[in-house]
Amino acid sequence: MRYETLHSLQIPKIGFGTWTIGGQSAPDPTVDESSELALRSALDIGYRHFDTAESYAGGHAEEILGKVVREMHVPREHLFITSKVSPDHLHPEDVLRSCENSLRRLQMDYLDLYLIHWPHSGMNLAETFQALNQLVRAGKVRWLGVSNFNLKLLKQAAALSETPLLTNQVPYSLPDQTYIRNGVLEYCQQNDILLTAYSPLKHRYVKGNKVMKNIAQSRGVSTQQIALAWLTTQPRVISIPTSFNPQHQAENFAAADLVLSDAEMTRLSIGKH
Question: What Rg, from alpha-carbon coordinates, does the chain have?
Fold first, then answer.
């Protein structure tokens, strides 16, 4: 596993997203067993960065993640746990309450990283960061970040955080390069802020891309791994794919060690065979 080294931290290039663990927008007990099996498999493979949120399955994803970690006796210090506060909980008192609730569901003493999940037009970002900074000072949270922030909001957040802003988590993949065009990726790379790519695997695009297939065949890997390697080869970019399939989990994990050449990166970016 390759890592991004930043502010004395080593953060895995590939983490595990939990947005389908335990259900979708609300808890779904019918998927509890498969969710637990997926997390157990991920931990066995070697995943140590897990990304969750209070909104995932109405908080149930956090409960299942905490349960599996405890049952597998993984030392807390070996994990990097990210959670997020929802956009309707950005009032300072709500931020503090949301963090405490996430910690309670996870049954953990602190979060490694806490993000604003989405911005909204009525938020007072300065007041929200007062609460977030308070959580860091109290030892409840180690690092702060944001998600789905445009360049203007990202700059504001970086100025308001008392500790270096660690990441902006955004949708980023070969067919979706919005955050290149809007200047966010360049700003992150220039200011030592990670860009965490979610929804990195557009399966229809991956399956149908001839350039990706050619490179995958020459490398002896899957097209899915090439899609992830296109992300993780870039400096200050990490990704958090998810899968319930152990084989796909293992392939995703191994993609972190796959470094594409400049020529391969260019071929993928311009779609040239």
Answer: 18
